[in-house]
Amino acid sequence: MAREHLAAEGLAERTLVTGDVMTDVCLRVADSVKDQAAALPEGIDPASDYAVATIHRADNTDDPARLAAIVKALQDRDMPLALFAHPRLVAKAEAAGIELAGGAVHVGAPVAYPDLVNAVQHAAAVVTDSGGLQKEAYLLGTPCSTVRTETEWVETLENDWNRLVVDPSELTAAVTRPRPTAERPPYYGDGRASLRSVDALRERA
Question: Cys bridge to 144: 3, 21, 125, 126, which one at CB 3.0-4.6 A?
């Protein structure tokens, strides 16, 4: 897609696709922390099955009824869920009188990127409306349920590694779906894009 956009600008002959450096970062960070216990909110055993959630978009937080429905769907689960609560989510929930913690939901503050990657790579499932976290879940092999009407990463929907959930009432079924057994094609590269980029710059220097 990026190549097509550049070609439309008349830059086809000058374009060289090396990969996605976001993939490089995600996979390298995941490897560096894979042997560490995940940093999770109090009450969740990192050695047992758990899910990770982040919710922050206006579509999901500005309407109190929708936000309440999403929170209830997350709470009404058997598997513990680590909700890394974005400040926007906290503020909107407080304003609407919605208690985020309860049931399966254990609330924690947002964590540093390595901690989030580590939590996701050891999780049984991810629930999010984040653009980046959908992709990271795919890269790390963790099934994702995306609480949105669309995704930037349409490839992740293949083979059910990512699933769009528009209606909060369908969230529990989505999160508890069987783990996909199909392969995850390397749509976003092999983690070596930065090295190829450096080599390309050296060749053209």
Answer: 126
